Amino acid sequence: MDIGFTRNKSFEEPQHLKEYLSTFPVLNAYIGSVYKDRLLPKDRYYDAITIHNTDWVGRDLIFDLDLDEYDPVRTCDCTGREVCEICWAFMQDAANIMDETFAVDFGFKKRVWVYTGGRGYHCWILDEDTFDLDQNQRTAIVEYMQLIHDPKGVQKIDDPGDFANLLVKRIYRKIGRKYIMETPIKRLEEEAGFTKNSIEKARSRLKNSELVADIVDSIPRGKENQFLKTVILNHYPRIDHKVTIDIRRLIRMPGSIHAGTGNISEYVNPISFNPAFDAKNIYDVIGE
Ligand SMILES: [Zn+2]
After folding, report:
1. pTM of whole model > 0.70?
2. In this structure, are 143 and 180 located in the same domain?
3. Domain count within the chain
4. Which of 95, 117, 188, 218 is in Cβ range 3.0-4.6 Å of 202 for a Cys bridge?
């Protein structure tokens, strides 16, 4: 079997891509942007047409989440490419926050979440008016949401602003409450300045409330900032901004196989999906 990359293939119609892939099955399939001209190899009379010398027309707006970005805060034994049902909760929480931010703060309507077959999700925004956003516009969108920088190194956290901020309210609702309810008591004391007493009171109050005001009131006085930063550090989305910004970058094709795991990359509900139970493996599907 030949193992290698075939690059610079272009197709005018989705049907042509489908026919190509049925004729030449591949281990991994990546797709990129729409360009003005079909790409062509160099021949005797013409220079090659590549993605670097034809006009860029557009690309879906795409966001990338990978679990290896969470290595500093994962509490299971996974590192790098490994995933398990426990650490996948980071992906679910991240998608939960991002999807609402896309819908409410940006008004994006067609949002498709894709399990990559490996260690994360891609979110594709398919609204027509986002298709030709340039790199600067894509950078502005991802920077609005990105609060953790250099996640594998210094883990600097941006000041997310005050309680009036949409994003901050969302952090309290989507991950702040969960952090208070589910984090082991010892960690709550060490990381966020809680006492045993304040944890008990907070948990009984928040059992029946998801109000931001109640969540904020449950935090020990003067520890609000420490709390917010701890929640962000431990549970806020860690977006790989390069994937969103680089408009010439290739992205794994939804529906294709992730050759590393054999799992099928597929459309999912990112909040309920967990690959530990739900991933479909190609070898199970076709029978080895
Ligand atoms: Zn894990």
Report:
1. yes
2. no
3. 2
4. 218
